[in-house]
Design brief:
five-stranded parallel sheet, Rossmann fold, 11 helices, 2 domains, binds N-carbamoyl-L-aspartate, alpha/beta, about 325 residues
Length: about 325
């Protein structure tokens, strides 16, 4: 094992070796998750707090399931029923949670950079569950794991990321992680949905989906993030679908092994046609189930130091 990482705020906290380590740990936790009692005592006595300032379904449930399968205690913080409603600052909230004794804080916030501020106010390990448009590293890890399980590795694979790149924290983390593992990434979007500058992004850009669709191993669709758009960036959703949507027609032109991926939540009928998620090469539900095991690996990597993995995964919690 390389030196333990203190936090997972962005993909750069891990680097290529750190990503590979999470993926191989995930294999152990995949096996644990397939057991009749999918629970190990790896993080017994550790406490993980959720600090979600933005809506979430799958990310939050997935982290919660991961923590429970590792026997961690969890502290649930809901912005809508907390003192944040009375104007409590982020700093006071974090210091309060921290004073109760937490080992990790999983944070989602509408502002980019929040996970990097938190270590000023707490000694807990910070896990970024999405900060504004900036990063969503555990999504990138679960996507790398899903691709690795289906295609063997990412090395030399060509991956198209399609849609609202500009507002997507998933795209930012995924580009870094995919490229770190040796994939080539092509972004496909109308110019209005690309970031103002792509300087430093190790990617190609295409504006015509039909030009590239036959030559990629993965099509990764992004949700049109209408809640983050100040102005209308596409003439109409119908026109967007015609040019950039994965319609049934385009899906039929993909190679037989080309994976169809989406981080969810999907807008069926906009970026992806209604029946396409049900095709055999669509791995969208695998992404969700792999999310749990990858997040188990992340929590174990951050909090399980000093506890040997083989002993832990071999043992079922007696009181599970
Ligand atoms: C993404 C998010 O919230 O960043 N969803 C997720 O975590 N699975 C993507 C999105 O909202 O479109």
């Amino acid at each position: 094992m390389s030196d333990p990482v203190a936090h997972l705020r962005g993909i750069d906290d891990l680097g290529a070796d750190g990503i590979r380590e999470i993926l191989s740990l995930s294999d152990h936790f995949l096996e644990v998750s397939s057991r009749r009692i999918p629970k190990v005592p790896a993080l017994r006595g550790r406490t993980v707090a959720w600090l979600f300032y933005e809506d979430s379904t799958r990310t939050r449930l997935s982290f919660e399931t991961a923590a429970k399968r590792l026997s961690a205690d969890t502290m649930n913080f809901s912005v809508s029923s907390s003192s944040v409603k009375k104007g409590e600052s982020l700093r006071d909230t974090v210091e309060t949670i921290s004073a109760m004794g937490v080992d990790a804080i999983v944070v989602r916030h509408r502002s980019a950079g929040v996970p990097w501020m938190l270590p000023r106010w707490t000694d807990a390990a910070i896990v970024n569950a999405g900060d504004g448009w900036h990063e969503h590293p555990t999504q990138a890890l679960l996507d790398c794991y899903t691709i690795t399980r289906r295609l063997g590795s990412l090395q030399g694979k060509r991956i198209a990321i399609i849609g609202d790149i500009k507002h997507s924290r998933v795209a930012r983390s995924n580009v870094k992680a995919f490229v770190a593992l040796g994939a080539e990434v092509v972004l496909v979007a109308p110019p209005t949905l690309l970031p103002p500058s792509l300087e430093g992004w190790p990617v190609e850009v295409a504006t015509d989906l039909d030009d590239i669709i036959g030559g990629v191993e993965v099509v990764y669709l992004l949700r049109m993030q209408l809640e983050r758009q100040q102005e209308s960036l596409v003439p109409s959703l119908r026109e967007y679908t015609m040019r950039f949507g994965l319609t049934a027609d385009r899906a039929a032109r993909l190679g037989p092994d080309t994976l169809i991926m989406h981080p969810g939540p999907m807008n069926r009928g906009v970026e992806i046609a209604g029946d396409v998620p049900d095709l055999p090469n669509a791995v969208i539900t695998d992404q969700v189930s792999n999310g749990v095991v990858v997040r188990m690996a992340v929590l174990y990597r951050l909090l399980g130091s000093g506890v040997a993995l083989p002993a832990l995964v071999a043992e079922e919690a007696p009181d599970a």
